C-alpha cells in the first residue's frame, strides 16, 4: 500500500512539474490559442506601472515608454513583476498595441485571412488594421499572427497607422542612406523607414537599421511612445482669425484633423477636394475612442473668440454634409482619390458614431453662444441654404 502511494505521489509531482514547464515556455504558435477579453495580451494579465517590474529600471531607455504603455493599457507585463522587455513580439502583438492606442475601434469589415479566427484575442485588432490598410498580411489569405514582427514591418505598420491618425508622414530625406545596411531594406518599407529615421522615431544600432531583426517588447512600446511625443506641440488659438485658422504646423493629431476641417476655402479652386478631405478628417475624428474627440473639440473651441467659433461651426457643418453624402452613397467616393485620401475605407466608419460626435459638437457650440452657423457666411453659396 505504501509503495502504491509513493508511486502515485511521484507521478503527481512529475505531472505538476511538466505543467509548470509548459506554462513557463509557451510556444510561439500558442498566440493563436489565447482567449482575449480586453484585459490580456499574450494571455497575461495587466500589472502595475514600470517601477513595479524587476526587469525595468529608471536607467533603461525604455523606462518612460513602458510606464506610458502600461498606464494607457496598451500592454502589460508577462507577470506581476516582469515586463520581459527583450522578448520578441509577434505581428499579432503589435497590431493589438496599435489597436489599443487607437482606442479599440470596432469596424464592420470582412477579413480574408484564413489564419485569424473570430475567437482569437487579436481578431478585432487585425480586422481594424486590415480595414485601414495598416496591415496587408504575408499573403492575401495569411496574416502570420505568430510570426515575430521585424523592425521594418513594425515601422511600416506604425507609419500607416500614423498616416491614418492624421500625423505628418511626409518627412523623408536622405539621412536614412547613411546607415550601413540601407540597401538591405525591403522596397515596401523604404518610405516608412525614411520617415521614422527623419523623425527620430527609429534610431538604429551601431549605424545599422537591422530591418530583418525581430522587434522586442521594449522596442515596440518605444516606437509608439516616440510617435506619441510627436503630438505634444499644442497650438494657442487666441488672437485674430488668421492667427489660428492656418496653424497647420501643429503636431497634435486631433488638432490637425480639426484644422483640416477649419481651413477649407469654399468656392476656390480645389475647394471641393479640400471639402472631401475635411469630411475624411471628420470621419477620422469619429473613429477615435468616444470622448477623446469631443474633448479635443472642447479644447479647440476654448481658445477662440465668437467670430472664430461661428466660422468653425460653419466649416463643421460643411464637412458633416460631405461625410454623410459619402457614407450614404450620394457622393461618388472617387473624389477621395483626387483629394489624396484614396486609402480611406468608408466601410470602417460608423454613421451612428458620426451622428453622436456631431450632437456633442453642436451642444458645445450652442453652449458657446453659437446659435446660427450661417449668419456670417451668407456670401458662401451654395452653403447658405437651410
Structural commentary:
This protein has 386 residues and is an all-alpha fold. The protein folds into 2 domains: 207 residues, no CATH class; 127 residues, no CATH class. The protein contains 14 helices and 2 strands. The chain has a two-stranded antiparallel sheet with strand order 1-2. The N terminus and C terminus are likely disordered.
How are the secondary structure elements laid out?
Blueprint: H1 2-24, E1 40-41, E2 44-45, H2 63-71, H3 91-101, H4 123-131, H5 151-164, H6 190-198, H7 217-229, H8 241-245, H9 253-262, H10 271-287, H11 292-302, H12 306-328, H13 335-338, H14 351-367
Antiparallel strand pairs: 1-2
Helix pairs in contact: 2-7, 3-4, 3-5, 5-6, 5-7, 9-10, 10-12, 10-14, 11-14, 12-14
Give the key terms.
disordered C terminus, 45% helix, 14 helices, disordered N terminus, 386 residues, globular, mainly alpha, 2 domains, two-stranded antiparallel sheet, 2 strands
Which structural class fits the helix and strand makeup? Answer: mainly alpha
Fraction of residues in helix:
40-55%
The helix-strand sequence is HEEHHHHHHHHHHHHH
Number of strands: 2
* Arithmetic mean of pLDDT: 75
- Report the span from N to C terminus: 93 Å
Please give the largest β-sheet. 2 strands, antiparallel
Short overview:
By secondary structure, this protein is mostly helical.
